[in-house]
Write a structure and sequence with these properties.
The chain is an alpha+beta fold and 461 residues long. The protein is built from twelve helices and seven strands. The protein has helices spanning 11-25, 36-43, 57-71, 77-87, 89-108, 137-209, 214-249, 272-282, 284-305, 345-410, 416-450, 455-460, and strands at 2-6, 74-75, 115-123, 126-136, 257-258, 312-322, 329-336. A five-stranded antiparallel β-sheet has the order 1-7-6-4-3. The chain is elongated.
């Protein structure tokens, strides 16, 4: 619907309104760091390492130098995490979500350009010329609320980006423990294989000499065959574990050198209560969904505001009808939609449903957070107890049996095959301890992650 209003009625008011709109539109600017400082602050609450977002060749060169310096040493788990946080290109790509979200925020603070239209007709010396400059005044009315919505989304993006940083750190820790454990397993699997090979060779020679039967030889040969398969499997797992770590660090496996052993088991562990309390203070997924729910609430208010009027444009117009030298008629063109067929009730109902959906998801997430922490702590505690038991009871017992059998062997009271078998059992107990220790550090990483958020939840937002 178009309405022509005498230009003199609202001339000064219109000029003032449009002038104010241009001032407001020019206020929307980009921040100096694109929200990266807030991401750094959030991640520092959970990890010790630095993060970087190099955007220039000079900044990238500094990052490369830092990575090279770290790679020149034998890496512990914290140094490996530092390399990943500086050098992982997937994480660098995630940082650009900040730029996308901030651009949306800035765009929300900029008004659409005014429109100019012109009609020119001529018939036998009579002219009709219409010149109209229109401005979307409705966007000026809704701009503050749209800016607030995008501002909350920008904060939410910062929370999600911080979570991506911590997720990469956690994945790197797990990959590091897997790689070191795999190397240890290869080392001990090789010892088992060598022991079984020596036992099988001795059995072959004794059968040849007529001092051993075929059944006993077959058993020793079977032990050797199983040990050879176990060694091949351990070697393959080592390659896979190193490649997984390589992908996270962003460097090839021949460029890094890891510790030879996993970190020792801690002397003691914390109780459950501090972990549960920390969940609602630190979990980024809870913070992010609260921001999302607040943004949806504001968006619902905006939907109610715009349910009757979608477009409202106003601007000066002048019209000439008649001879070329006749004066122009001046006025204002106003156009808006009339709610005849669509009263906006469907949009409001949809927004309300989306909002209530988010409220209930937030409530369920809070319930899940408590359960996830209890479950992760139980796994952490169980793995600690199991690993401690293997270290303090099983490994020493196997070692003692081997030592006693060595004394018996020296006194010619037992056969070399029993000694080989005890040696294999002792090495196998050490391998079990390595696997249990790896499981403990994996459980420790998983528990720390539950204090920060659920990966699947953050990915779904």
């Amino acid at each position: 619907m178009n309405i022509n209003i005498p230009f003199s009625m609202k001339h000064r008011t219109l000029v003032t309104l449009i002038g104010s709109a241009f001032v407001l539109g020019g206020c929307a600017t980009f921040s100096k760091d694109g929200g990266f400082g807030n991401v750094q602050e959030a991640t520092q609450q959970h990890i010790k390492q630095d993060i970087g977002w190099p955007k220039t060749a000079d900044e990238q060169s500094k990052v490369n130098d830092r990575v090279k310096e770290l790679l020149s040493k034998r890496l512990n788990v914290e140094q490996a995490v530092q390399i990943a946080l500086l050098n992982n290109k997937g994480l660098q790509a995630d940082f650009y979500n900040l730029g996308i979200s901030e651009a949306d925020l800035v765009q929300a603070g900029r008004l659409p350009n005014p429109k100019f239209s012109m009609l020119y007709t001529q018939n036998d010396g009579d002219y009709k010329i219409e010149q109209i400059l229109t401005f979307n005044i409705f966007s000026l009315l809704t701009m503050p609320k749209m800016q607030e919505i995008e501002r909350q989304r920008f904060v939410q993006t910062q929370k999600k980006t911080a979570f991506e940083v911590i997720k990469i750190a956690n994945h790197t820790r797990i990959a590091y423990f897997n790689a070191v454990a795999a190397t240890e397993q290869v080392r001990y699997s090789e010892q088992v294989k060598e022991s079984a090979e020596a036992s099988a060779e001795l059995a072959r020679r004794m059968v040849k000499a007529g001092n051993y039967n075929k059944l006993q030889q077959a058993r020793e040969q079977s032990f050797y065959a199983d040990a050879a398969l176990d060694y091949a499997s351990a070697t393959n797992k080592q390659v896979s574990a190193y490649e997984a770590l390589s992908r996270l660090l962003g460097v090839s496996v021949d460029q890094f050198n890891l510790e030879e052993r996993l970190p020792d088991l801690p002397k003691s562990i914390d109780e459950l209560q501090p972990f549960e309390k920390a969940a609602f203070e630190q979990r980024l997924d809870l913070q992010a969904i609260r921001l999302e729910t607040d943004a949806l609430a504001k968006q619902l208010g905006l939907t109610k505001t715009t349910r009757f009027i979608n477009v409202l444009e106003i601007g000066p117009a002048r019209v000439l009808e008649g001879r070329r030298g006749d004066p122009y008629k001046k006025g204002v063109e106003l156009s808006f939609e009339l709610p005849i067929f669509d009263w906006g009730t469907a949009r409001v109902a949809r927004a309300e449903s989306i909002y209530m959906q988010s409220v209930n998801r937030a409530a369920q997430l809070a319930i899940n957070a408590q359960s996830e922490i209890r479950e992760a702590y139980n796994t952490y505690r169980t793995n600690y107890d199991v690993t401690k038991h293997i270290r303090d009871e099983i490994v020493p017992l196997r070692k003692k049996i081997l030592q006693e059998n060595q004394l018996r062997y020296n006194g010619m009271l037992t056969s070399p095959f029993e000694l080989f078998g005890d040696a294999r059992a002792q090495v196998t107990s050490v391998k079990s301890y390595i696997e249990a220790l790896r499981e403990f550090w994996m459980a420790d990483s998983a528990l720390q992650m539950t204090l920060i958020g659920n990966e699947n939840m953050m990915e779904g937002n």
